[in-house]
Amino acid sequence: xxxxxxxxxxxxxxxxxxxxxxxxxxxxxxxxxxxxxxxxxxxxxxxxxxxxxxxxxxxxxxxxxxxxxxxxxxxxxxxxxxxxxxxxxxxxxxxxxxxxxxxxxxxxxxxxxxxxxxxxxxxxxxxxxxxxxxxxxxxxxxxxxxxxxxxxxxxxxxxxxxxxxxxxxxxxxxxxxxxxxxxxxxxxxxxxxxxxxxxxxxxxxxxxxxxxxxxxxxxxxxxxxxxxxxxxxxxxxxxxxxxxxxxxxxxxxxxxxxxxxxxxxxxxxxxxxxxxxxxxxxxxxxxxxxxxxxxxxxxxxxxxxxxxxxxxxxxxxxxxxxxxxxxxxxxxxxxxxxxxxxxxxxxxxxxxxxxxxxxxxxxxxxxxxxxxxxxxxxxxxxxxxxxxxxxxxxxxxxxxx
Length: 401
Prior knowledge:
about 400 residues, alpha+beta, 9 helices, CATH 2.40.50.100, 4 domains, four-stranded antiparallel β-sheet, rod-shaped
């Protein structure tokens, strides 16, 4: 064969531009590219779930403070509140009535205690110190004491007058006896006969004395009566003060119950309500109404809470990367990244079965915060590993996890 034929353009055209050569070369290059790509390019092994935006911490737990009917309800989910804002106002008619009633009793005890103090001072000074306004009748008590003191003094004085008259009569009789004795003595000297009469007169003189004694007990009787009256008044005063202390304790409790009819926010933040109490006009005391979360407009990060089943929980670990995608109608999807911060060791029962709760913390920008609200849900992708495509498909073929 003529070798010059192999050097012709027609030969090369037919030999190297046929269907086989055109197809094999690109396929070879493609296969080579795929092999190289699979050896060096990596893919992510992920667990996908649905997550919810939650706070990184709960600032305050709000509980019902009264069993009364709600008269004013300012609760609203995702409402921004400030410290001191009124959240719930309960009816306080009963508490107000109790407080007023107890306060009136305390005021009466104060007046009675003051009146007893005046009574004690009146008894000690022996004079009526009460004015015209004597609510408790203690003015009559001091008047009765003063009248008794006058009666005692009068009786003692009367007895002393009688004794004085007796003494005067005896003294008068005794004063005449010495004269009679003198006369008889004269007769004795003359006749030596009336000696017996003289002896009788001397005997009469020695025996003719008053049998009564003066009564000096008026002051002691009055003092005894005074001490009795003061002691009784002091006992009443002690009892009144004791009753007032008990009423003060009751008033404090009544005021606490009255204050509890107004529920205020103790912190700045965002309200998150318990769905079970929404619209209720009566919430039992101690029931959790909701929580106050950090304000999203000031938050630098938020938490993403989601649930995974037991097949994947062992592959999730702290600090693994998490991506949260929030799709909003009419807006570009919001994608924020973070990492896992906690994994529950016990399952949580849901309507779809038992799942493990996972919490991730994601950083947010000011632009992200404009589109986020607590409770929003989106897709959560947890990156559990990175593999080359070669290893990924190899594990798939070999059924390796």
